[in-house]
Write a sequence for this structure.
Protein backbone atom coordinates (compact mmCIF):
# COMPACT_ATOMS: atom_id res chain seq x y z
CA UNK A 1 0.00 0.00 0.00
CA UNK A 2 1.26 3.44 -0.89
CA UNK A 3 1.38 5.96 1.90
CA UNK A 4 -0.13 9.32 1.19
CA UNK A 5 2.63 11.83 1.71
CA UNK A 6 0.37 14.82 2.01
CA UNK A 7 -3.21 15.66 2.77
CA UNK A 8 -5.79 16.45 0.12
CA UNK A 9 -6.18 20.08 -0.89
CA UNK A 10 -9.65 21.35 0.02
CA UNK A 11 -11.82 24.24 -1.15
CA UNK A 12 -15.45 25.19 -0.65
CA UNK A 13 -17.60 27.30 -2.97
CA UNK A 14 -21.03 28.64 -2.08
CA UNK A 15 -23.19 29.09 -5.15
CA UNK A 16 -26.62 29.22 -6.70
CA UNK A 17 -27.65 26.57 -9.22
CA UNK A 18 -26.77 28.85 -12.16
CA UNK A 19 -23.34 29.57 -10.69
CA UNK A 20 -22.83 25.85 -10.25
CA UNK A 21 -23.26 25.28 -13.99
CA UNK A 22 -20.74 28.05 -14.70
CA UNK A 23 -18.25 26.53 -12.29
CA UNK A 24 -18.64 23.19 -14.08
CA UNK A 25 -17.89 24.89 -17.40
CA UNK A 26 -14.79 26.55 -15.98
CA UNK A 27 -13.58 23.26 -14.53
CA UNK A 28 -14.01 21.57 -17.93
CA UNK A 29 -11.34 23.88 -19.36
CA UNK A 30 -8.80 23.02 -16.69
CA UNK A 31 -9.22 19.25 -16.53
CA UNK A 32 -6.57 17.34 -18.49
CA UNK A 33 -7.84 14.90 -21.12
CA UNK A 34 -7.20 12.02 -18.73
CA UNK A 35 -8.83 12.82 -15.41
CA UNK A 36 -10.99 11.36 -12.65
CA UNK A 37 -13.75 13.37 -11.01
CA UNK A 38 -15.95 11.86 -8.32
CA UNK A 39 -19.35 13.56 -7.98
CA UNK A 40 -21.00 12.95 -4.64
CA UNK A 41 -23.99 14.37 -2.77
CA UNK A 42 -27.55 13.48 -1.78
CA UNK A 43 -30.40 12.97 -4.23
CA UNK A 44 -31.34 16.20 -5.95
CA UNK A 45 -28.22 18.21 -5.03
CA UNK A 46 -27.24 18.56 -8.68
CA UNK A 47 -24.61 15.96 -9.56
CA UNK A 48 -26.09 15.39 -13.01
CA UNK A 49 -26.59 19.15 -13.51
CA UNK A 50 -22.90 19.66 -12.76
CA UNK A 51 -21.92 16.85 -15.14
CA UNK A 52 -24.15 18.35 -17.85
CA UNK A 53 -22.47 21.76 -17.49
CA UNK A 54 -19.03 20.16 -17.70
CA UNK A 55 -19.80 17.91 -20.68
CA UNK A 56 -21.61 20.65 -22.63
CA UNK A 57 -18.61 22.95 -22.10
CA UNK A 58 -16.52 20.39 -24.00
CA UNK A 59 -18.59 21.01 -27.11
CA UNK A 60 -20.88 17.98 -26.84
CA UNK A 61 -24.14 18.80 -28.63
CA UNK A 62 -26.23 15.70 -27.97
CA UNK A 63 -28.38 15.76 -24.82
CA UNK A 64 -26.56 14.79 -21.63
CA UNK A 65 -29.00 12.71 -19.61
CA UNK A 66 -28.84 11.05 -16.21
CA UNK A 67 -26.91 7.74 -16.41
CA UNK A 68 -28.69 6.28 -13.36
CA UNK A 69 -30.48 3.52 -15.24
CA UNK A 70 -28.19 3.17 -18.22
CA UNK A 71 -25.12 3.18 -15.88
CA UNK A 72 -22.58 4.53 -18.39
CA UNK A 73 -22.62 6.92 -21.29
CA UNK A 74 -19.63 8.07 -23.31
CA UNK A 75 -19.48 11.50 -24.95
CA UNK A 76 -16.97 12.79 -27.44
CA UNK A 77 -16.33 16.52 -27.65
CA UNK A 78 -13.06 18.39 -27.32
CA UNK A 79 -12.20 15.62 -24.88
CA UNK A 80 -13.78 12.20 -24.34
CA UNK A 81 -15.96 11.84 -21.24
CA UNK A 82 -17.16 8.63 -19.58
CA UNK A 83 -20.18 9.57 -17.44
CA UNK A 84 -21.04 6.90 -14.87
CA UNK A 85 -23.57 6.57 -12.08
CA UNK A 86 -23.15 3.94 -9.37
CA UNK A 87 -26.50 4.69 -7.67
CA UNK A 88 -28.11 1.39 -8.68
CA UNK A 89 -25.10 -0.79 -7.96
CA UNK A 90 -24.50 -2.55 -4.66
CA UNK A 91 -21.51 -4.82 -5.25
CA UNK A 92 -17.97 -3.94 -6.22
CA UNK A 93 -18.09 -6.72 -8.83
CA UNK A 94 -20.89 -4.88 -10.63
CA UNK A 95 -18.75 -1.76 -10.91
CA UNK A 96 -15.77 -3.76 -12.18
CA UNK A 97 -18.03 -5.46 -14.73
CA UNK A 98 -18.64 -2.08 -16.34
CA UNK A 99 -14.99 -2.26 -17.39
CA UNK A 100 -13.97 0.06 -14.54
CA UNK A 101 -10.18 -0.28 -14.83
CA UNK A 102 -10.28 -0.06 -18.62
CA UNK A 103 -12.35 3.12 -18.39
CA UNK A 104 -9.85 4.59 -15.93
CA UNK A 105 -6.98 3.72 -18.28
CA UNK A 106 -8.64 5.47 -21.22
CA UNK A 107 -7.42 8.91 -22.27
CA UNK A 108 -10.73 10.35 -21.05
CA UNK A 109 -12.35 12.36 -18.30
CA UNK A 110 -14.12 9.89 -16.04
CA UNK A 111 -17.07 11.48 -14.20
CA UNK A 112 -18.55 9.21 -11.55
CA UNK A 113 -21.77 10.00 -9.71
CA UNK A 114 -22.23 8.27 -6.33
CA UNK A 115 -18.54 7.32 -6.24
CA UNK A 116 -18.67 7.40 -2.40
CA UNK A 117 -20.66 4.13 -2.47
CA UNK A 118 -17.37 2.50 -3.51
CA UNK A 119 -14.59 4.58 -1.90
CA UNK A 120 -12.01 1.82 -2.37
CA UNK A 121 -12.34 1.91 -6.15
CA UNK A 122 -11.35 5.57 -6.42
CA UNK A 123 -7.87 6.05 -7.92
CA UNK A 124 -5.36 7.45 -5.45
CA UNK A 125 -4.98 10.66 -7.47
CA UNK A 126 -8.33 12.27 -8.14
CA UNK A 127 -10.59 15.25 -7.82
CA UNK A 128 -13.68 14.83 -5.70
CA UNK A 129 -16.68 17.12 -5.53
CA UNK A 130 -19.19 16.79 -2.72
CA UNK A 131 -22.33 18.87 -3.24
CA UNK A 132 -24.46 19.77 -0.23
CA UNK A 133 -27.70 21.64 0.24
CA UNK A 134 -27.43 25.17 1.58
CA UNK A 135 -30.11 27.76 2.35
CA UNK A 136 -29.21 29.96 -0.61
CA UNK A 137 -28.26 27.17 -2.98
CA UNK A 138 -25.43 24.68 -2.74
CA UNK A 139 -22.05 24.23 -1.12
CA UNK A 140 -19.49 22.67 -3.43
CA UNK A 141 -16.65 20.99 -1.55
CA UNK A 142 -13.69 20.13 -3.73
CA UNK A 143 -10.94 17.81 -2.60
CA UNK A 144 -7.85 17.37 -4.78
CA UNK A 145 -5.43 14.51 -4.30
CA UNK A 146 -2.24 14.52 -6.35
CA UNK A 147 -0.22 17.26 -8.02
CA UNK A 148 -2.26 17.41 -11.24
CA UNK A 149 -5.55 17.83 -9.43
CA UNK A 150 -4.14 20.37 -6.96
CA UNK A 151 -3.11 22.48 -9.94
CA UNK A 152 -6.57 22.14 -11.48
CA UNK A 153 -8.17 23.26 -8.22
CA UNK A 154 -5.73 26.19 -7.90
CA UNK A 155 -6.67 27.35 -11.41
CA UNK A 156 -10.35 27.05 -10.56
CA UNK A 157 -9.92 29.10 -7.38
CA UNK A 158 -7.99 31.80 -9.30
CA UNK A 159 -10.66 31.96 -11.94
CA UNK A 160 -13.59 32.21 -9.55
CA UNK A 161 -12.15 34.69 -7.03
CA UNK B 1 -41.00 -28.44 -40.71
CA UNK B 2 -43.41 -26.36 -42.74
CA UNK B 3 -41.37 -24.09 -45.02
CA UNK B 4 -44.00 -21.35 -44.75
CA UNK B 5 -43.33 -20.91 -41.07
CA UNK B 6 -40.79 -18.38 -39.87
CA UNK B 7 -39.25 -18.73 -36.45
CA UNK B 8 -37.30 -15.64 -35.35
CA UNK B 9 -35.04 -15.93 -32.31
CA UNK B 10 -34.82 -12.59 -30.50
CA UNK B 11 -31.92 -11.75 -28.17
CA UNK B 12 -31.80 -8.83 -25.73
CA UNK B 13 -28.82 -7.98 -23.47
CA UNK B 14 -28.68 -4.18 -23.53
CA UNK B 15 -28.86 -3.44 -19.80
CA UNK B 16 -30.00 -5.52 -16.81
CA UNK B 17 -31.97 -8.31 -18.45
CA UNK B 18 -30.76 -11.29 -20.46
CA UNK B 19 -33.68 -12.38 -22.61
CA UNK B 20 -34.35 -14.75 -25.51
CA UNK B 21 -37.64 -15.28 -27.33
CA UNK B 22 -39.04 -17.28 -30.21
CA UNK B 23 -41.60 -15.56 -32.44
CA UNK B 24 -43.62 -17.53 -34.98
CA UNK B 25 -44.69 -15.75 -38.18
CA UNK B 26 -44.22 -12.34 -36.58
CA UNK B 27 -47.13 -12.57 -34.22
CA UNK B 28 -47.21 -15.69 -32.09
CA UNK B 29 -44.89 -15.56 -29.09
CA UNK B 30 -43.81 -19.19 -28.59
CA UNK B 31 -41.50 -18.25 -25.70
CA UNK B 32 -40.13 -15.12 -24.03
CA UNK B 33 -37.56 -15.98 -21.37
CA UNK B 34 -36.32 -13.15 -19.14
CA UNK B 35 -33.42 -13.98 -16.80
CA UNK B 36 -34.71 -12.04 -13.76
CA UNK B 37 -37.92 -14.07 -13.85
CA UNK B 38 -36.28 -17.49 -13.77
CA UNK B 39 -35.65 -18.97 -10.31
CA UNK B 40 -32.04 -18.07 -9.45
CA UNK B 41 -30.91 -21.58 -8.54
CA UNK B 42 -31.86 -22.85 -11.99
CA UNK B 43 -29.61 -20.36 -13.74
CA UNK B 44 -26.76 -19.82 -11.31
CA UNK B 45 -26.75 -22.84 -9.03
CA UNK B 46 -27.60 -20.72 -6.01
CA UNK B 47 -25.20 -17.83 -6.60
CA UNK B 48 -26.97 -14.50 -6.44
CA UNK B 49 -26.62 -12.72 -9.76
CA UNK B 50 -25.38 -9.18 -10.21
CA UNK B 51 -26.25 -6.43 -12.62
CA UNK B 52 -24.10 -5.79 -15.70
CA UNK B 53 -22.28 -7.59 -18.39
CA UNK B 54 -20.70 -10.69 -16.91
CA UNK B 55 -24.10 -11.88 -15.78
CA UNK B 56 -25.24 -11.91 -19.42
CA UNK B 57 -22.28 -14.05 -20.43
CA UNK B 58 -23.02 -16.56 -17.68
CA UNK B 59 -26.65 -17.06 -18.60
CA UNK B 60 -27.09 -16.23 -22.29
CA UNK B 61 -26.78 -19.82 -23.52
CA UNK B 62 -29.05 -21.11 -20.78
CA UNK B 63 -31.69 -18.50 -21.61
CA UNK B 64 -31.55 -19.37 -25.33
CA UNK B 65 -31.88 -23.09 -24.53
CA UNK B 66 -34.93 -22.36 -22.38
CA UNK B 67 -36.51 -20.23 -25.10
CA UNK B 68 -36.05 -23.00 -27.70
CA UNK B 69 -37.26 -25.71 -25.33
CA UNK B 70 -40.40 -23.79 -24.39
CA UNK B 71 -41.10 -23.10 -28.09
CA UNK B 72 -40.52 -26.82 -28.73
CA UNK B 73 -38.11 -26.21 -31.57
CA UNK B 74 -34.37 -26.66 -32.12
CA UNK B 75 -31.73 -24.26 -33.45
CA UNK B 76 -32.15 -25.86 -36.91
CA UNK B 77 -35.77 -24.67 -37.09
CA UNK B 78 -34.81 -20.98 -36.83
CA UNK B 79 -35.28 -18.69 -39.84
CA UNK B 80 -33.26 -15.73 -38.54
CA UNK B 81 -31.69 -14.24 -35.41
CA UNK B 82 -32.58 -10.72 -34.28
CA UNK B 83 -30.40 -9.03 -31.68
CA UNK B 84 -30.33 -5.69 -29.87
CA UNK B 85 -27.36 -3.74 -31.27
CA UNK B 86 -27.98 -0.61 -29.18
CA UNK B 87 -28.47 1.58 -27.26
CA UNK B 88 -27.13 0.19 -23.99
CA UNK B 89 -23.97 -0.79 -22.17
CA UNK B 90 -21.27 -1.74 -24.62
CA UNK B 91 -20.08 -4.77 -22.64
CA UNK B 92 -23.61 -6.07 -22.21
CA UNK B 93 -24.61 -5.45 -25.85
CA UNK B 94 -21.51 -7.20 -27.15
CA UNK B 95 -22.49 -10.44 -25.45
CA UNK B 96 -25.82 -10.53 -27.30
CA UNK B 97 -24.30 -9.38 -30.58
CA UNK B 98 -21.42 -11.89 -30.44
CA UNK B 99 -23.74 -14.75 -29.52
CA UNK B 100 -26.14 -13.85 -32.34
CA UNK B 101 -23.29 -13.58 -34.85
CA UNK B 102 -21.89 -16.97 -33.87
CA UNK B 103 -25.31 -18.60 -34.17
CA UNK B 104 -26.12 -16.94 -37.50
CA UNK B 105 -22.76 -18.01 -38.90
CA UNK B 106 -23.01 -21.59 -37.65
CA UNK B 107 -26.64 -22.04 -38.74
CA UNK B 108 -26.17 -20.11 -42.02
CA UNK B 109 -29.26 -17.97 -41.37
CA UNK B 110 -29.72 -14.17 -41.53
CA UNK B 111 -28.57 -11.89 -38.71
CA UNK B 112 -30.81 -8.91 -37.97
CA UNK B 113 -29.74 -5.88 -35.92
CA UNK B 114 -32.42 -4.19 -33.82
CA UNK B 115 -32.67 -0.85 -32.06
CA UNK B 116 -33.81 -1.53 -28.49
CA UNK B 117 -36.13 1.51 -28.49
CA UNK B 118 -37.84 0.34 -31.69
CA UNK B 119 -38.41 -2.92 -29.81
CA UNK B 120 -40.43 -1.06 -27.14
CA UNK B 121 -42.66 0.42 -29.86
CA UNK B 122 -43.07 -2.92 -31.69
CA UNK B 123 -44.21 -4.59 -28.49
CA UNK B 124 -47.47 -2.83 -29.33
CA UNK B 125 -47.80 -4.67 -32.65
CA UNK B 126 -47.56 -7.99 -30.80
CA UNK B 127 -50.52 -6.77 -28.76
CA UNK B 128 -52.44 -4.95 -31.52
CA UNK B 129 -51.20 -6.18 -34.94
CA UNK B 130 -53.59 -4.04 -36.99
CA UNK B 131 -52.99 -0.75 -35.24
CA UNK B 132 -53.53 1.97 -37.87
CA UNK B 133 -50.56 4.15 -38.80
CA UNK B 134 -49.19 6.77 -38.45
CA UNK B 135 -49.13 6.40 -34.70
CA UNK B 136 -47.90 8.57 -31.85
CA UNK B 137 -45.95 6.60 -29.24
CA UNK B 138 -44.91 7.62 -25.74
CA UNK B 139 -42.04 5.47 -24.42
CA UNK B 140 -41.47 5.78 -20.67
CA UNK B 141 -39.02 3.68 -18.68
CA UNK B 142 -36.28 3.94 -16.08
CA UNK B 143 -33.77 5.05 -18.67
CA UNK B 144 -35.88 6.67 -21.40
CA UNK B 145 -38.66 9.17 -21.96
CA UNK B 146 -39.33 9.68 -25.67
CA UNK B 147 -42.29 10.85 -27.71
CA UNK B 148 -42.03 9.22 -31.15
CA UNK B 149 -43.93 9.61 -34.42
CA UNK B 150 -44.20 6.19 -36.03
CA UNK B 151 -45.28 6.35 -39.67
CA UNK B 152 -44.17 2.85 -40.68
CA UNK B 153 -41.26 0.44 -40.63
CA UNK B 154 -38.00 2.39 -40.88
CA UNK B 155 -39.96 5.62 -40.73
CA UNK B 156 -39.93 6.96 -37.21
CA UNK B 157 -38.87 10.20 -35.63
CA UNK B 158 -38.20 11.32 -32.06
CA UNK B 159 -40.32 14.41 -31.38
CA UNK B 160 -39.14 15.03 -27.84
CA UNK B 161 -37.09 13.42 -25.09
CA UNK B 162 -36.03 14.10 -21.54
CA UNK B 163 -33.20 16.54 -20.99
CA UNK B 164 -32.07 14.98 -17.74
CA UNK B 165 -33.81 12.22 -15.72
CA UNK B 166 -36.20 9.72 -17.27
CA UNK B 167 -39.74 9.54 -15.85
CA UNK B 168 -39.13 6.09 -14.35
CA UNK B 169 -35.95 7.31 -12.67
CA UNK B 170 -37.86 10.22 -11.10
CA UNK B 171 -40.43 7.71 -9.77
CA UNK B 172 -37.71 5.52 -8.25
CA UNK B 173 -35.76 8.36 -6.66
CA UNK B 174 -38.80 10.11 -5.19
CA UNK B 175 -39.94 6.73 -3.86
CA UNK B 176 -36.61 6.32 -2.10
CA UNK B 177 -36.86 9.77 -0.50
CA UNK B 178 -40.35 8.87 0.73
CA UNK B 179 -38.84 5.77 2.33
CA UNK B 180 -40.46 3.24 -0.01
CA UNK B 181 -38.89 -0.08 -0.93
CA UNK B 182 -37.46 -1.03 -4.32
CA UNK B 183 -38.82 -1.12 -6.98
CA UNK B 184 -40.01 2.36 -6.17
CA UNK B 185 -42.49 2.94 -9.00
CA UNK B 186 -45.15 0.39 -8.00
CA UNK B 187 -44.70 1.23 -4.29
CA UNK B 188 -45.25 4.93 -4.99
CA UNK B 189 -48.31 4.22 -7.11
CA UNK B 190 -49.81 2.18 -4.27
CA UNK B 191 -49.13 4.90 -1.69
CA UNK B 192 -50.60 7.54 -4.02
CA UNK B 193 -53.94 5.69 -4.17
CA UNK B 194 -54.87 7.11 -0.78
CA UNK B 195 -53.48 10.58 -1.33
CA UNK B 196 -54.83 13.89 -2.55
CA UNK B 197 -53.20 14.69 -5.90
CA UNK B 198 -53.90 18.39 -5.42
CA UNK B 199 -52.32 18.69 -1.98
CA UNK B 200 -48.95 19.99 -3.14
CA UNK B 201 -48.34 22.33 -6.08
CA UNK B 202 -45.33 20.99 -7.99
CA UNK B 203 -43.54 22.21 -11.13
CA UNK B 204 -44.41 20.67 -14.49
CA UNK B 205 -41.89 18.40 -16.22
CA UNK B 206 -43.04 19.46 -19.65
CA UNK B 207 -40.70 22.13 -20.98
CA UNK B 208 -39.65 24.03 -24.07
CA UNK B 209 -43.17 24.79 -25.28
CA UNK B 210 -44.21 21.20 -24.67
CA UNK B 211 -41.65 19.55 -26.91
CA UNK B 212 -39.28 18.18 -24.27
CA UNK B 213 -39.29 16.84 -20.72
CA UNK B 214 -37.23 17.61 -17.64
CA UNK B 215 -37.91 15.55 -14.53
CA UNK B 216 -34.89 16.72 -12.53
CA UNK B 217 -36.52 19.94 -11.25
CA UNK B 218 -39.69 18.11 -10.25
CA UNK B 219 -37.68 15.46 -8.40
CA UNK B 220 -35.70 18.15 -6.55
CA UNK B 221 -38.91 20.04 -5.68
CA UNK B 222 -40.37 16.94 -4.01
CA UNK B 223 -37.10 16.27 -2.17
CA UNK B 224 -36.96 19.90 -0.97
CA UNK B 225 -40.56 19.79 0.29
CA UNK B 226 -39.87 16.60 2.19
CA UNK B 227 -36.54 17.90 3.52
CA UNK B 228 -37.93 21.25 4.73
CA UNK B 229 -40.88 19.63 6.49
CA UNK B 230 -38.49 17.27 8.24
CA UNK B 231 -36.22 20.15 9.33
CA UNK B 232 -39.16 22.06 10.79
CA UNK B 233 -40.40 18.93 12.49
CA UNK B 234 -43.68 19.09 10.56
CA UNK B 235 -45.69 16.01 9.72
CA UNK B 236 -46.01 15.60 5.98
CA UNK B 237 -48.68 13.42 4.44
CA UNK B 238 -46.63 11.05 2.32
CA UNK B 239 -49.64 9.70 0.44
CA UNK B 240 -50.59 13.26 -0.55
CA UNK B 241 -47.04 13.99 -1.67
CA UNK B 242 -46.87 10.74 -3.67
CA UNK B 243 -50.25 11.45 -5.29
CA UNK B 244 -49.30 15.03 -6.13
CA UNK B 245 -46.01 13.90 -7.65
CA UNK B 246 -47.61 11.14 -9.71
CA UNK B 247 -50.31 13.52 -10.91
CA UNK B 248 -47.73 16.05 -12.15
CA UNK B 249 -45.67 13.34 -13.88
CA UNK B 250 -48.71 12.01 -15.73
CA UNK B 251 -50.00 15.49 -16.54
CA UNK B 252 -46.58 16.58 -17.86
CA UNK B 253 -46.17 13.43 -19.97
CA UNK B 254 -49.62 13.96 -21.48
CA UNK B 255 -49.14 17.66 -22.11
CA UNK B 256 -46.64 17.02 -24.91
CA UNK B 257 -48.72 14.15 -26.27
CA UNK B 258 -51.76 16.42 -26.39
CA UNK B 259 -49.87 19.20 -28.20
CA UNK B 260 -48.68 16.68 -30.79
CA UNK B 261 -52.12 15.09 -31.26
CA UNK B 262 -53.66 18.53 -31.75
CA UNK B 263 -51.44 18.98 -34.80
CA UNK B 264 -53.38 16.12 -36.37
CA UNK B 265 -52.29 13.40 -38.76
CA UNK B 266 -52.22 10.51 -36.29
CA UNK B 267 -54.37 7.41 -36.63
CA UNK B 268 -53.56 5.82 -33.25
CA UNK B 269 -51.88 6.36 -29.88
CA UNK B 270 -49.42 3.96 -28.19
CA UNK B 271 -47.80 3.70 -24.78
CA UNK B 272 -44.62 1.64 -24.21
CA UNK B 273 -41.82 0.99 -21.70
CA UNK B 274 -41.74 -0.14 -18.07
CA UNK B 275 -43.60 2.90 -16.66
CA UNK B 276 -46.61 1.87 -18.79
CA UNK B 277 -47.34 -0.38 -15.77
CA UNK B 278 -48.61 2.73 -13.97
CA UNK B 279 -52.40 2.54 -14.00
CA UNK B 280 -52.98 6.28 -13.67
CA UNK B 281 -50.80 6.88 -16.74
CA UNK B 282 -52.45 4.08 -18.73
CA UNK B 283 -55.89 5.41 -17.94
CA UNK B 284 -55.00 9.02 -18.74
CA UNK B 285 -53.52 7.98 -22.09
CA UNK B 286 -56.56 5.89 -22.91
CA UNK B 287 -58.88 8.80 -22.11
CA UNK B 288 -56.80 11.13 -24.25
CA UNK B 289 -57.04 8.67 -27.16
CA UNK B 290 -60.83 8.54 -26.70
CA UNK B 291 -60.98 12.32 -26.72
CA UNK B 292 -59.30 12.30 -30.13
CA UNK B 293 -61.27 9.26 -31.26
CA UNK B 294 -58.13 7.20 -31.83
CA UNK B 295 -57.48 3.53 -31.09
CA UNK B 296 -55.12 3.14 -28.13
CA UNK B 297 -52.59 0.37 -27.54
CA UNK B 298 -50.43 -0.59 -24.59
CA UNK B 299 -48.53 -3.90 -24.46
CA UNK B 300 -49.13 -6.58 -21.82
CA UNK B 301 -46.91 -5.91 -18.79
CA UNK B 302 -44.35 -8.60 -19.65
CA UNK B 303 -43.85 -6.91 -23.04
CA UNK B 304 -43.38 -3.45 -21.45
CA UNK B 305 -40.22 -4.42 -19.56
CA UNK B 306 -37.01 -5.21 -21.42
CA UNK B 307 -37.66 -8.49 -23.23
CA UNK B 308 -36.61 -10.33 -26.38
CA UNK B 309 -40.08 -10.89 -27.91
CA UNK B 310 -40.22 -7.19 -28.79
CA UNK B 311 -36.76 -7.49 -30.40
CA UNK B 312 -37.98 -10.48 -32.42
CA UNK B 313 -41.02 -8.42 -33.48
CA UNK B 314 -38.76 -5.78 -35.06
CA UNK B 315 -36.66 -8.65 -36.40
CA UNK B 316 -39.65 -10.11 -38.22
CA UNK B 317 -40.45 -6.78 -39.94
CA UNK B 318 -36.83 -6.56 -41.13
CA UNK B 319 -36.83 -10.24 -42.10
CA UNK B 320 -39.72 -9.60 -44.45
CA UNK B 321 -37.91 -6.64 -45.95
CA UNK B 322 -34.65 -8.57 -46.27
CA UNK B 323 -32.82 -6.01 -44.12
CA UNK B 324 -30.00 -8.18 -42.80
CA UNK B 325 -26.84 -7.23 -40.93
CA UNK B 326 -23.36 -8.42 -41.82
CA UNK B 327 -21.31 -10.68 -39.59
CA UNK B 328 -19.15 -7.65 -38.88
CA UNK B 329 -22.03 -6.14 -36.86
CA UNK B 330 -20.88 -4.09 -33.88
CA UNK B 331 -22.57 -2.87 -30.69
CA UNK B 332 -23.75 0.75 -30.70
CA UNK B 333 -24.10 2.01 -27.11
CA UNK B 334 -25.35 5.49 -28.14
CA UNK B 335 -27.73 4.42 -30.91
CA UNK B 336 -30.65 6.84 -31.41
CA UNK B 337 -34.06 6.00 -32.81
CA UNK B 338 -34.36 6.74 -36.51
CA UNK B 339 -30.60 6.89 -36.96
CA UNK B 340 -29.80 3.25 -37.49
CA UNK B 341 -29.33 1.84 -40.93
CA UNK B 342 -28.85 -1.86 -40.34
Amino acid sequence: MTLLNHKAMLKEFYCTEEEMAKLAQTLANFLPKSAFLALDGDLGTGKTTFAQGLIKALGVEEPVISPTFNLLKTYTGLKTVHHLDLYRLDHEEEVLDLGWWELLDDPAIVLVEWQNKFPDLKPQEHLQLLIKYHEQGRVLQFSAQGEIYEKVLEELIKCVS
Amino acid sequence: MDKEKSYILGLETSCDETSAAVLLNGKEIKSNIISSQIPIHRLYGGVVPEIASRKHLEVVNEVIDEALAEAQITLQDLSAIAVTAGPGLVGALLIGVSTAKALAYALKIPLIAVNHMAGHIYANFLETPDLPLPSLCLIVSGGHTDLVAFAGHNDLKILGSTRDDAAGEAFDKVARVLGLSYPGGPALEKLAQNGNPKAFPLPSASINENTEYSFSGLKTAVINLHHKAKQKGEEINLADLAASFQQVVVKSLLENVRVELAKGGYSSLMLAGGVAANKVLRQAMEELAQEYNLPFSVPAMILCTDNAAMIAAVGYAKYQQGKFAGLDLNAYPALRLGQDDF
Q: What stands out?
A: The longest strand of chain B covers residues 145-152. The radius of gyration of chain B is 21 Å. Residues 45-51 of chain B have pLDDT under 50 and may be disordered. Chain B has two domains: 7-121+303-321, 133-294.
